[in-house]
Design a protein that fits this description.
Helix content is 36%, strand content 17%. It is of the alpha/beta class. The strands form 2 sheets. It has an 8-stranded mixed beta sheet with strand order 1-2-3-4-5-6-7-8. The chain is globular.
Amino acid sequence: MRILRASALATLFIFAGCPPADSPDADAAPPLGSDFGGAAFEFEEVVPGVYHARGTGNLSVGSHGAVIVNDDDVLLVESHISPAAAYAVVDEIEALTDKPVRYVVNTHYHFDHAHGNRIYPDDVHVIGHEVTREMLESGASLGRSYELFVGGLPDQIAAMEGALEGLQQSVDEAEDEAAREEAEEQLARLESRLAYMRNYAAGQEGLMPKGPNTTLSERMTLFRGDREIRILFFGRGHTGGDVVVHLPQERVIVTGDLLVPGLPYMGDGYLAEWVETLEHVKALDFDWVLPGHGQPFQDKERITYLQDYMRDLQARAAELHARGMSYEEAAAQIDMTDHAEHYPQITGPGVSAVAVLRVFELLDGGS
């Protein structure tokens, strides 16, 4: 495998001096939130022509994605967290290929995977499950999960601005050269982080989610030259509409957040059904998993580890729910340390409160 970091280029989709008819306008101004330096993505070629796309940290991109270079075109998995992130990945894959992007797959509706859809013209097939389109078009992707991760941005920026003033005062009042240099280094790091956060916030300004223009209920197969690309829905899991992209000849699956190396976010999940959905994923023929977060992996046993964890979390949360406990109290009490061998981030009692809230919602008849 090779990893390539593409340089950020000034224009989008410049092939032989002009953009193809179905690409975003190469002369259009970059979207809000495009003020960053260096590359936004690095691309790891897992098998020939199939890349895992990961953020470098120069731009907030949200999720990892995939780039599948076919004979005549490109399929991207995920449009990432904002139009700026979607613009950047399309721009930077010029380092990989001069073929046009004609397909984009949203593995699910969460903002960090699908809020870049708006940059694509109507003749690019943006593909997702029917539920994904419904949730994006209704604005549900701006709901609880979005607020949990993005809603605090203004307060975070304000706090950093206050800290910046304090550090500047430390620089001005430093009594010796060593103290001044240390304060200046801290100031420079905070200024860089603040610029990143301001740009992140700018990328969310006025954002209007846009759903896929091509949907499926169970499966869709694309044949692009010699490559077969299967887009599969096995049931509810991380959300109500997660799809898996399966390349049977290359023995690769792209899983979004349905399957990641560690513990996924469960705040919109269906834990009891997720376990069964993963059983269908397990039955696929594959060697490589390209997840929506974390590094590519080959260990199929990770599916079993996650199923075991979710079965136990569901059962333990249900028991405390039956005892009339609040979700906050239950989350603080639930002890999953018997799973720490596979999830080292577990260091003692206590689990994600939003995961327990979600279990309680479903037990109370929520959808």
